[in-house]
């Protein structure tokens, strides 16, 4: 029998199947409900941060987040690992530690054997074991497309949260994982060609990078996922009231990413990311291919940190609002 290719059962793949950022913002506009009396919301809907944060008794903040998507690779075990690492990344991006998770599953039972689902869940569980948190049940439905992810609960020190509205001008910008997994995953879906480098990057936890950032006193960070580096940086600069420069030559890429792009493997989400950011972008002399890579929709990407993280490349700097020209929040050089 021919091996089952999970990516062929999904219209999109990984974080590239997100609803476009601009469209999503229009959908949730006006839905910012007032917190009930007695609640102590630290991070909510206002700036589209990575996780919600609420202060509780005992001086801690509880973090809550969820992430799920259609298959990004054909191997079910690897898909489970990638989805779990991606889901817990939001907790790390806020400077927290995961406490527990529950699984979220949609499965086309008449199309795909449940043995594959077991492998997906095994992959997610192995990542949870590596990260040191239990997976305590979840919810599953029969659906047309396979979907897997987790809802993750974590804790953090409220005084040391990393937020996307806390960036200040005059600081370096670090990136803790290379870009390019979006175009490589798109090639994998189209041709079946597997990138071990992309998978290794996607299953790597952002735990160590998060702890290094907290130890360095960093207060502004986000993870780079479906909206690409440019999209997530734009959201951070807008929320923080600053601007940023990106040094395109300093940005690292997974091996094979440029070749995949040259072969035409561009996720629709990456193009939509660039179109969304373009009105706020200055990139004279930078080619369209380079911009596509900078906007490439990542799955389980690294942390984008305002400050220096030991071992991570510096890919730009934050600058004062208005210093890059009218309406420009991100400049690529």
Describe the model:
This protein is 32% helix and 23% strand. It is of the alpha+beta class and 333 residues long. The chain folds into two domains: 6-156, 60s Ribosomal Protein L30, Chain: A, CATH 3.30.1330.10; 171-332, Alpha-Beta Complex (Phosphoribosyl-aminoimidazole Synthetase, Chain A, domain 2). Helix 2 runs parallel beside helix 3. The radius of gyration is 19 Å and the shape is globular.
List the helices and strands and how they pair.
Blueprint: H1 21-28, E1 41-43, E2 52-56, E3 60-69, H2 76-93, E4 97-107, H3 114-131, E5 135-142, E6 147-156, E7 172-175, H4 181-191, H5 196-202, H6 207-215, E8 221-223, H7 228-240, E9 242-246, H8 257-262, H9 268-277, E10 281-282, H10 288-294, E11 303-306, E12 314-320, E13 330-332
Outline of this structure?
This protein is an alpha+beta fold.
Order of strands across the main sheet: 8-11-7-12-9-13-10
Secondary-structure element order, as H and E? HEEEHEHEEEHHHEHEHHEHEEE
Report the sheet with the most strands, covering strand number, pairing sense and barrel closure. 7 strands, mixed
So what's the overall shape? globular
- Report the CATH architecture of the largest domain: Alpha-Beta Complex
CATH topology of the largest domain: Phosphoribosyl-aminoimidazole Synthetase, Chain A, domain 2
- Total domains, how many? 2
Report the radius of gyration as a whole number of Å: 19 Å
Which stretches are low in confidence, meaning pLDDT under 50 for 5 or more residues running? none
In helices, the fraction of residues equals 25-40%
Structure annotation, total helices: 10
Number of strand segments: 13
- Fourth-tier CATH superfamily name of the largest domain: PurM-like C-terminal domain
Overall mean pLDDT: 93
User: Which structural class best describes the helix and strand composition?
Assistant: alpha+beta
The span between the termini is: 50 Å
Proportion of residues in extended strands = 15-25%
**In CATH, what is the class of the largest domain?**
Alpha Beta
């Amino acid at each position: 029998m021919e091996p089952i290719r999970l990516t062929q059962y999904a219209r999109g793949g990984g974080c590239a199947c997100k609803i476009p950022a601009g469209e999503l913002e229009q959908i949730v506009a006006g839905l910012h409900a007032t917190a009930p009396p007695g609640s102590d919301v630290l991070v909510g809907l206002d700036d589209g941060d990575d996780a919600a944060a609420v202060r509780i008794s005992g001086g801690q903040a509880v973090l809550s987040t969820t992430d799920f998507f259609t298959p990004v690779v054909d191997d079910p075990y690897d898909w489970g690992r990638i989805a779990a690492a991606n889901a817990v990344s939001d907790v790390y991006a806020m400077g927290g530690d995961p406490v527990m998770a529950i699984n979220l599953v949609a499965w086309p039972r008449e199309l795909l054997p449940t043995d594959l689902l077991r492998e997906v869940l095994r992959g997610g569980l192995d990542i949870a074991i590596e990260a040191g948190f239990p997976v305590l049940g979840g919810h599953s439905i029969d659906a047309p497309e396979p979907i897997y992810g987790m809802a993750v609960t974590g804790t953090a020190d409220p005084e040391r949260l990393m937020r996307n509205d806390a960036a200040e001008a005059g600081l370096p910008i670090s990136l803790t994982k290379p870009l390019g997994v979006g175009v490589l995953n798109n090639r994998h879906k189209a041709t079946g060609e597997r990138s071990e480098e992309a998978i290794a990057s996607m299953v790597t936890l952002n735990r160590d990078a998060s702890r290094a950032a907290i130890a360095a006193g960093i207060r502004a960070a986000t993870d780079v996922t479906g909206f690409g580096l440019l999209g997530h940086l734009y959201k951070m600069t807008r929320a923080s009231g600053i601007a940023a420069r990106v040094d395109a030559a300093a940005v690292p890429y997974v091996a094979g990413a440029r070749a995949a792009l040259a072969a035409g493997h561009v996720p629709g989400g990456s193009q939509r990311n660039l179109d969304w950011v373009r009105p706020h972008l200055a990139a004279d002399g930078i080619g369209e291919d380079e911009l596509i890579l900078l906007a490439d929709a990542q799955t389980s990407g690294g942390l984008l940190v305002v400050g220096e993280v030991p071992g991570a490349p510096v890919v730009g700097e934050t600058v004062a609002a208005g210093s890059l020209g009218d309406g420009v929040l991100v400049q690529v050089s």
